[in-house]
Description:
Elements lengths: L2 H20 L20 H8 L20 E4 L5 E3 H5 L4 E6 L4 H14 L6 E6 L6 H11 L5 E3 L4 H5 L8 E5 L5 E3 L9 H13 L2
Parallel strand pairs: 3-4, 4-5
Antiparallel strand pairs: 1-2, 1-5, 3-6, 6-7
Amino acid sequence: MTGRQRWMLVAAVLVVGAAVALWPYLPSSGNAEPTSSPPQADLSVLRGKADLAACPRPGVGGGPAGLRGIEVDCLGDGSRIDLAAVLAGRRAVINFWEPWCAPCRAELGVLQAYAAEPGAALVLLVQAPDESDAASGLDMLAGSGIRLPAVYDYSGAAAKALGKPGAFPISYVLDAGGAVSRVTEPAVFETTEQVRQAVSRQNETR
């Protein structure tokens, strides 16, 4: 083998070696399948941190007529529940909130304090799918120490059925007979006494 031939052989080996080294970085063909999907939030971990109270079990009766057939996700365990069924036969405060809403954060603390009082109505938090997802809701509740039962209105059907305006927070009061009314005064609960009065007004109208 001549010197020229040896140099040509060395050059060929170097070219092949460079190609092998660069192979992982070369653009793939459009027909290639992705090897992995974007990471998703682990809701089981967030649920453990939030440690929310269990969502209520179905009550007695059909529940509020306007909410029948509407399903929501229980944030505490991820189960799908019938909203009207779990509210049936109960007095309740239904609070629509969003994690990014500053007034909501303060009001949630008031609602939790009210719910701990003897004879309090059920307080059910409804996270509306405006600009958030279930993960952000669980994260905010965990960080705020709010342990109230909460659901995620993933389809927006509950908000639509009640005619909820595009503002937060919004609360509704439900009596045991299934009548629902929106709380307009105050717009945001600042004391547990205000919550008690709203519940009392709803029951007095029946």
